[in-house]
Amino acid sequence: MLAGMRKLTMTVAGAVLLLSLVACGQQADESEAQVAAIPGATASGTTAAAATGNADRTFPLGASQEEIDRIYDAYYACWTQHGVPSAPDSGGPLLTYKRNPKKYQAAVDACADKEPLDAPERDPQQNPNFVEDLREEKACMESHGIKMEIRGTGKESQLWAVNDKANIAKANSDEGMQIARDCEIAAFTQK
What we know:
Elements: H1 2-11, H2 31-37, H3 48-52, H4 65-81, H5 92-99, H6 101-110, H7 130-143, E1 148-151, E2 158-161, H8 165-172, H9 174-188
Antiparallel strand pairs: 1-2
Helix pairs in contact: 5-6, 7-9, 8-9
């Protein structure tokens, strides 16, 4: 469920886990060259996730909210196919599950092969430079005026927006989300 926490934290004001950015100040026409620099990517932009069949559930580095929503919609659709109610008045399948995990655990287990996955670069088990990259992402975000903090230690570290009303508003703005995507790409792309 760690990957499931990603969407929640992006949408909950107060403690926003942010996705991050393309090089701070990088030109848009460099994006094609950058794709090939991502570990596991080919010059055509395909990744190791595509080769293993996980492309439909792996967040791309710097995922947009639309990409995140698409991946989670497919995952939660599986839950509803296996019996977790998704009526709007129930709060959707995730809230229904959280209210009664024992009742719906079998449905969640049946969808384990569809659970969203972080980009390999954001997976501490696959990226030996994860902690350093996270620090670089934090510095990039802060260079754009969004105060961040690293919570957890070592491979358990996560980047969170500092819980200040103005800071959270900036982090959750369209501009802040773009800064976050750009910083994530800049920090986690192999140099």
